[in-house]
Structure formats: C-alpha cells, structure tokens
Amino acid sequence: METLHVELGERSYPIYIGSGLLAEPELITRHIRGRAAMVVSNETVAPLYLKPVLDALGGYKAGETILPDGEIYKNLDTLNVIYTRLLERHFDRRATLLALGGGVVGDMTGFAAATYQRGVDFIQIPTTLLAQVDSSVGGKTGVNHPLGKNMIGAFHQPRAVIIDTRTLDTLEDRQLSAGLAEVIKYGLIDDAEFFAWLEARLDELLAREPAALAHAIRRSCADKARVVAADEREQGRRALLNLGHTFGHAIETHTGYDTWLHGEAVAAGMVLAAELSARLGWLATDAVARIRTLLQRARLPVEPPPHMGTADFLQHMAVDKKVIDGRLRLVLLRGIGQAVVTDDFDPAVLRDTLEALTADATA
Amino acid sequence: METLHVELGERSYPIYIGSGLLAEPELITRHIRGRAAMVVSNETVAPLYLKPVLDALGGYKAGETILPDGEIYKNLDTLNVIYTRLLERHFDRRATLLALGGGVVGDMTGFAAATYQRGVDFIQIPTTLLAQVDSSVGGKTGVNHPLGKNMIGAFHQPRAVIIDTRTLDTLEDRQLSAGLAEVIKYGLIDDAEFFAWLEARLDELLAREPAALAHAIRRSCADKARVVAADEREQGRRALLNLGHTFGHAIETHTGYDTWLHGEAVAAGMVLAAELSARLGWLATDAVARIRTLLQRARLPVEPPPHMGTADFLQHMAVDKKVIDGRLRLVLLRGIGQAVVTDDFDPAVLRDTLEALTADATA
After folding, report:
1. Which of A51, A126, A238, B268 has the most neighbouring CB atoms within 10 Å?
2. pLDDT tens-digit series, residues B123-132
3. CATH code of the domain covering residue B330
C-alpha cells in the first residue's frame, strides 16, 4: 500500500492506493468520527463490493443507499433519495457517508455530505479508474442541471480516499478507457515525462498489467493532489485540471448525459483544445498528432458527436463555470505538459476550429 | 444608519441598520464584486420593494426571480427554479445573488448561492422582522425536507446584510409578532437586561414605534453577531440560538409548514423548553410565568397545536440536527438570560412535560 497526502491544513487527508484494500476494514473505520455510516453505491457496484464495506462497519449503525447507475441519474432527484434515506434511518450530523462507486456516486455522495444537516463527513472508495485518478480527489462535489453539467455543487473534502486497485478487475473496457482519458490529461497539463511514459506503456495499461496501472494511478493522484493543495477552490491554477472539459461538458450536456461517458467527452474535448491551440500558433502540429494517436490507442473518441455543430458548442460553452463576467476562459496548450488557462485568444479562431472539426465541416 | 460587524476573518461582513436604506444604491453595489446580480424575492415582497433594488443595479447585468410566498415552498423544487433562472440567463460564478424578502427567501437564496457553480456571493436584504433579527445574519442557509426542517443546507456567509427598518411598515401584524418571538429569544439566551427592556417596551414595539423597533433590531443583531463570531459552524455555543427550535421544528414539520409561522412555532417551543427546565428544577416557576406572559402579550401562541401529542413530538425531535450519535440535546434555561445546551436531562421528564402540555393532557 502507498499513501499520498492532499495537504489542505485542517482539511488534509490521505489517499491510500493498493491491491486488496477493501479487505482492510481499519482503513475505513479510522476515518469515521461518529458511530454511524451510510454507504452510497449503485446497482452495478453494490453486488460486487458492498459486502466487504458493510462488513467493515460491523460495530457501527450502518445502512446503504443503492442508486441507479449512470450520469443521467446525477441530478437533484437522485440526491433527494440519499437525503430521504438518511432521514428515514435517523442519521444525524455525526454520520459519515461512504461513496462506493465511480465518479457519479462520488460526486453525488460528496454533495449529499456537503449539504446534509449543513455538512457531514464522507469517505471516497472509488471503483472506476476515472474516479480513482480524478473525481475522488480534490473535494469537488455536485450534480448536473439539465442546462449544464456540475452546475450545482460545493467544495467538500473527503476524510480519506481508499483506492483498491483490484476493483478494476471488474471494470468494463469502455470504462477503463474513459479513465485513461483523465490519466493522459495529467501528462498534457504539466507532466510531459508522464505523457511519454504513457506512450511507452499504454498497451500494458490496456492489458490491465497491475504494476503499470498502480503507477498510473499514483502518478495521476500525486499530480492532482499537488494542484489541489495549491488552489483548493479554483481561484487560479486548479482550472488547469479542466483541460478538455469545457468542450467535453458541452458534448455531455448536448447529448443528454446518456450517450457519452465523461472520459470520452473529455478525450474529444482535449483534441479540440489541442487543435485550437495549434491554430493559434501555440502548439506544434506533431504534438497534436501525438495527442490524437495516444487517445486513439486508448480506444477513445477524438471527434465530437456526428450531429453536433459549432452553434451547439458555443451555446453550451457560454454557461461553463469558467466563464467570468461573460468572458470565456479555456485551458489550452503551449506544448505537451504546458497547459495554460486563458481568455486571451481570438474568438474567431475558436469558431474556425469548431467549424472545421464538427458536424459543420461535413454539412 | 448604524453598522454592526460580524467578525469572521476573511468572511467578515457588515450589517447596516437604518430607515430608508433601500434608497441608497451604493450600500448594495459596494458589495457586488462582479458585474451581474440576480435579485430573488417573492410574490408578496416584490411588488413593494423590487423596484428600488433593481434601480440600484442600473450599471449591472441584472435579473429577478420571483418565488411563491411561504415556508411550504422552501424546498428543493423551488431551489431549482433559482438555478434554472440563473442558467437560462447565463449568470456565471462571479454573479451575486440578492435575497429580498423574509427568512424563506433568505435561506433559499443563500443556499442557492452556496451551491450555484460551487458557490457565488450573496447579499441579504431582509424585509421581515424575523429575517432582520435572525435568519439574515450568521450564514445558515438551506431548504426543508418533508421529513425535517432545514435538513438540507450549508454554511455560507453573506457579503452584507442591509436592514431597511422602513420595510416593516408593510409587514402584517402576525409576521411582526413572529419576529418578536426571535427578539424575545435573545433576551432569554444571555441578555436578561434586554428581556426586561422588552417587558417594559413591548407595547411600543407592537405599535411599531420606530425608535423602539430600531433598538430591538440592533440589540438582537449584536447579540447574534457575537455568538456567530465565536462559533461560526455551531460546534458549541452557537447552538444556544436554537432555544425553542427543536420543539418548534417538530411543530412545523408535523403541521406541514403551512399553518404555523416559524416564529410562532419557536414561541410555543420556548414555552415547552421553559416548562421542561422548571420540571428539572432548573428554572423558577415565576420565570416561566414571565416568559409566557411576554409571549402572550406579543400575540404569540404558548401552546402546541391542538392535535399534536407526545409521540408526535418525540418522533420529529429524533431527527433534529442537534441529535449527536443518537442522543438528543436541547437548549434549556437555568434562568432568564441563562440558556444552556445539554443532553444531561432525564428523558422521562421530557416525556412527562410533553404529556402534561400537549394534546395528550386533554385526550
């Protein structure tokens, strides 16, 4: 087992990474301050991993809330299912919530914890690669609104993140690839060495070679923890973590959250960010080619949805959380491993890029 | 105009109290950091006071969201109306929300601000006595759940509280009385001198004598600001502000939020807290009589709803936010001006008190 730390003063917490950690109940219980814990999971994950977690809670008042599986359920109505369950079972403000599942379960459980009785503790137990390398770390929680992804939420840090890499054994291939999109993202943002490592070792990752996966998870978590520690509430540098996400969120919102996985949308979004960077003269075309190639090898989409045009993108991007006083900021690339947050680009070039690479190009 | 300060480090903010403050746009605009502001109000208040607030926002991107009036609408569905309006109008994370109305508008607008795009600024412009002396100060925000009052929420401090005492001119008598319940509460908690002042000056308050009202608001806000500054997130002393509220919330939840005003429920709740304190031998019976008398003079109920029995109270109180690891804590009285938070009481005496003073006594 390896332990990383997210350094946030009194809100600091450990990330445990290892194989078989779900069989170590003490890792969970040491982070529960009261005597009650509610596990929130979904219909896919619960049959596989709920039992060991409930077993770990033997000495506690324990319960579970099982949600339907999918980004389409990440909304206020499903959130209310968690509140209702907590109230029916009389969980009080010393209760701890445990998020057992992927990014959707983690985001919703975290937001429920941020807002139940004005805030209770929670622990992240991510079971998808995407949740392990990204969404379980950093305290961003929330739900979607029909008009925009993650528009309702709060910053609420977990008490611990417990990553059992063995849970990836049961992950379907498409979900593994979606997680790799966020892994590749860390290389692009500020870790060119990691990007090169990924180019060299991608086949091992796709073959689920345990040592390679463990390294990729560790490196991703370490990269993310460093950025979060420097800028918890995204006043500045943390926005780099959204590389590909403004385009990606537009894709997810446009397609209704039920067609594209988040990681898939981020992959296509990173290609758009790279292409725009190239058209601005900031990124070499061979770097764009390396990015496309690596994402394609990871079995990820590198094109937007076939029927989504420039106007669709611009409309959805206008409600992005990175819009400040009406001005769109994007995460763009000055090189592989050199992402920047900027609103200093010509909107006409953005439009040209979209027109060249979306449905408009073939219309 | 008088200015009080809630001292909370970087989250400190002023409370402005005065007659005619809505006519001073600069009081609002100096606390808006971006260029966009959304006023949230309700159908009762908007026709009276929305115009001067919108006029103050002349140089800004401005909008308004008008909600139905009443505690029954303080829920997730109405909250979503605010989110939708913000998204439709493309308000970004630099937007400021302005809560123009009573406690329901303030609590919901504050919670919307706490959670829209993971947190935006807000300003409280309370127009009821209850909101001016209590709910607009201190950063408690949230909505009700059918199973419990204020069970969904967050701590989120406003950037400023602007109290125009002239707005009380249009307040109906019943709402004025409901606000007086919270005013009287401050005397009971730790300000016996203020309680005596209220006994002497209640008739002036009921007659809406401006100087008396201004004094009562100032003193209440100062009492509350002191407690909040010492314990922002209710780890300890702040719970004193909930005197009468555990019983009161049970009444509100039981009656469905549409019969009793919050202040009325708190009044009946304070009598129950006083009676329980007396039965525990902590409070003299003549003090109980003084409390009853003052509340009755303020035209407030001093009995629970006619059909609500002991079992109803105990069931609703079991989900109170002050329950810690399954143990109920209550705010009780050791004297007028000497409230304590305690779980050190015999539950049998609580039961006896309820049986003597609720519907069970007349069954």
Report:
1. A126
2. 999 999 999 9
3. 1.20.1090.10
